[in-house]
Every structure is written in structure tokens, then in C-alpha cells.
Amino acid sequence: MPLRPDPFFAGEGLDRADHLRADPAAIASLHGSGEARQLVWLDGAPAVDEQGRLRWEAVEGSPPLFLGFSRGSPRFSALADGDAPATAYAHFQLLGLLDAADAPTFAAALSLANWHRRHGYCSVCGKPTEPNRGGWSRICGGCGSEHYPRVDPVVIMLAEHGGRVLLGRQPQYPPGRYSALAGFVEPGESIEAAVAREIREEAGIAVSDVRYLMSQPWPFPNSLMIGAWAEALGDSLRIDTNELDDARWFSRDEVVAALGNDPAAAFQAPPPSAIARTLLEHWADGLK
Ligand SMILES: [Zn+2]
Predict the structure, then answer these.
(1) Could you read off the pLDDT of 133-154 as tens digits, one per residue?
(2) Distance between CA 158 and CA 275 in Å, rounded?
(3) Which of 154, 171, 277, 288 has the fewest beta carbons under 10 Å from its own?
(4) pLDDT tens digits, one per residue of 80-120
(5) Beta bridge partners of 65
(6) How many angstroms separate the alpha carbon of residue 128 from the centre of ligand 1?
(7) Residue 25 CA to ligand 1 centre (angstroms)
(8) Measured in angstroms, how far is the CA atom of residue 140 from the centroid of ligand 1?
(9) Residue range 181-186: average pLDDT?
């Protein structure tokens, strides 16, 4: 098996200690232990210090989110104040500072906090809900329904034809940036069907032989990016201009130049925190 690069945010992160979540007495005793630490938040996201590590402080009171253990120390978080980060684009600079070793914990804490921010009311009866199970669910005070943090699957894929790869530009991208096509998996759809549909809708290309490659948690706000590869059956593009400014085929040499930040490259590659870049690195190495 060839070695595959790991996407940013992927990896083990904290020991989530699921067995303790249903034991409020055990969690309360962890609050009081001298080893307990609480995540620091800044502007709606976990705070990062000058070394790129997450910032932790002594626990005050009873923070409702029990994240798990790191190096034997119980880790907690308050519910994040203020608005969730509007988009990932506002945070690429922060992600560029974040140490990869802390990225899975950053993703777990932010995604969980984003879910709490958006689920204060029951989707069954409309009454207020409260954190439960150490923050890994919410209970409705009206009808008793228990709600669990949601994860939204997104397919993101490279279509290949004749040794070239298909990339697109969304209107909000910086000048020159091209990236992998992507879209949400819809209800009743397999990963393979979602990959084929998105490429057909956005670029007018039929594909076959869809293969799963790798995945990445993406906490803006609650996605799981599912990286895939597909064989394109033709190269004649019909671009959906509601979704994309442009889409083009790029050769391996053009991809290698972009990944190397060559100023003469045909396009600007996605940033290191994006799974699209990891997929391109993987493809440039001849893997699929
Ligand atoms: Zn309810």
C-alpha cells in the first residue's frame, strides 16, 4: 500500500471517553480534579497560541461540554459565545497557524459548539433543549426527545480524463484559485451516486469507477468531507455558472507546479488545510 498524506483535521485527537458521558457524577468529579483543563475561545473559534497550539485554562464551574482526555488530563469546554465563524474562508489564516497535532481537537470542539449554537430548540415540538451526555446530545424539556450532534456528508472529488484532472472555481475563491468540485450528499444517495451527480451537474461530465480515497472532518459548521476519485467518460465541459465561475482540465505538470507555489503555475492550489490540496498531492504522486 502506498503511503497516503493525511488531510488536515484528520487523526485521532482526544480520547473521547464515551463510557463517561452518561455518568454525570463522574464528569462532575473530573471538573474538580486539579488536572482538568477548559478550552479558551476567541471570536467564535478555539483560541490558538503563538506556537499554534490550542489554549487551555483551569476549569471554572461546570463547563457543559466534556471533550475527553488528552495526556491523562480531562478536557472541557464552555458553550461558545457569539456567532459561529461565518465561513471557512474567514479562518484559513487561523488554520494556517494551527499545529496539525491539535487540529482534530479544534475540529471536534468547534463542530460540537456549532451544533449547540444551532440546536437550542427541539425539532420535534419547538420547546427549548438542554445539553446532555457531557454535551454529546441535547434533551428537550417539552417532549423528552434526545437530539445528537449532526454531521453533514460532503463529497469532494477529482475527475480524471486522459491524464488530466478536472478542477473548478467558485465565485468566492481568491484570484487564480482552482479546487476540487464538491457538494452535499442528498438523502437517499450513496457516496458514489453523489460524486457522479455533482460532476454531471456542475461540469456536464459523466463518470464511472468512483473510488473513495480519504475523509476529513470540516467544522464549518459540521461537515465530513469525503474525498473521492472518478474516471471521466469525456472531457467536453458544460459548466453550471450558478455554481462555478469556471472549470478546467489540468495536467499533472500543471498540478505539480501549483502545489509547489510556482509563480508561473496555471492556477493557485487550495491551502494546506483543505482536503482538496491533499487529494491533489495524492493524485500528483500517481495514486488513486
Ligand atoms: Zn421536543
Answers:
(1) 999 999 999 999 999 999 999 9
(2) 11
(3) 171
(4) 766 665 555 566 777 888 999 999 999 999 999 999 999 99
(5) 77
(6) 8
(7) 26
(8) 5
(9) 98
Centroid of ligand 1 to alpha carbon of 145 (angstroms): 5
Grid cell digits, residue 283 = 493524485
How close is the Cα of 153 to the center of ligand 1, in Å? 25
| Reported pTM | 0.93
Phi, psi of 106 (to 5 degrees): -55, -45
Cα 18–chain centre separation = 21
Q: Which residues lie at CB < 5 A from ion ligand 1?
A: 122, 124-125, 127, 140, 142-143, 145
pLDDT score recorded for residue 94:
77
Using the mean position of ligand 1's atoms as its centre, give its distance from the Cα of residue 123 in Å.
7
Tell me if the bond preceding 64 is cis, omega within 30° of 0.
no
Say how far apart CA 54 and CA 47 lie, in whole Å: 6
